[in-house]
Specification:
The chain is α+β, with helices and mostly antiparallel strands. The protein contains 9 helices and 9 strands. It starts with a helix and ends with a helix. It holds the Pfam family HTH_IclR.
Length: about 260
């Protein structure tokens, strides 16, 4: 394959994935809407969509297209290749039941966080997050807990690649300020999120670190500011999380 052919193949693959991402963001879209979004001809967009539909990755309903369930098959496979998912999910479920709140498991991949598992306690609030969602690491307690236990050079790479965009006025967008926070988290082994990503929501997270001192992910509990305050927010929930993390770390080591 010539360099030009290789370049064209790469561009085609990139466009294919970009179309899938656009469909995810829009929930559904027409050929015309995608043509406008990508500045491609209608025939080109139609060819991409026809191929994706034929392979089961998109579904056509009337004149609109949406993401197909074949991607769920791939996602389910990817989920079960993560060892921490099988090891931690029962503990995260128990954490949600014990606290009555929303409990989460997050891992880092390609500099972003991905929710692997979530469990709802009796009083858990509803949020916009879902299993498989990719999020920035700098604006969540989960992400901060992971970043604090990565090598500084790796954290710098992540910031250089993804930046520090703000989602609320409480989001840290200054590199030096973030590094100072990560130093504190590394020392205290707990991270707090005070409405840094979602207004009205606080979160407490701790890292999951294996016996080689490598961070595997993080677990957290999230809830409304009205319940996440005082001793419960700063002492009780961190203690509970650290206890659960210890169990998960032992299970990782001896499973």
């Amino acid at each position: 394959m010539s360099d030009q052919q290789n370049s064209n193949a790469v561009k085609t693959a990139q466009t294919t994935f970009a179309i899938l991402e656009e469909l995810k963001q829009r929930n559904e879209a027409t050929v015309t809407e995608l043509t406008d979004a990508f500045d491609l001809s209608k025939s080109s967009i139609h060819n991409y969509l026809s191929t994706l539909e034929r392979e089961g990755y998109v579904v056509k309903e009337d004149n609109t297209y949406r993401v197909g369930l074949r991607l769920l098959d791939l996602g389910g496979h990817a989920l079960h290749t993560e060892r921490i998912y099988d090891v931690a999910k029962d503990e995260v479920t128990a954490l949600a039941e014990e606290t009555g709140e929303l409990a989460n498991l997050l891992v880092e991949e390609h500099g972003r966080g991905t929710y692997l598992y979530r469990a709802h306690g009796d009083d858990a609030v509803k949020t916009d997050s879902y299993i498989g969602q990719r999020v920035y690491l700098h604006n969540t307690a989960l992400g901060n807990a992971i970043l604090a236990h990565l090598p500084r050079a790796r954290v710098t790479e992540i910031i250089d690649r993804h930046g520090l965009p703000a989602t609320t006025e409480n989001t840290i967008t200054d590199r030096d300020e973030l590094f100072a926070r990560l130093d504190r988290i590394r020392e205290e082994k707990v991270a707090f999120d005070d409405e840094a990503r979602v207004k009205g929501l606080r979160c407490v997270a701790v890292p999951i670190v294996n016996n080689n001192a490598t961070v595997e992910g993080a677990i957290s509990v999230s809830g409304p500011t009205s319940r996440f305050q005082g001793q419960r927010f700063r002492e009780d929930l961190p203690a509970t999380l650290k206890s659960v993390a210890n169990v998960i770390e032992l299970n990782i080591t001896y499973t």
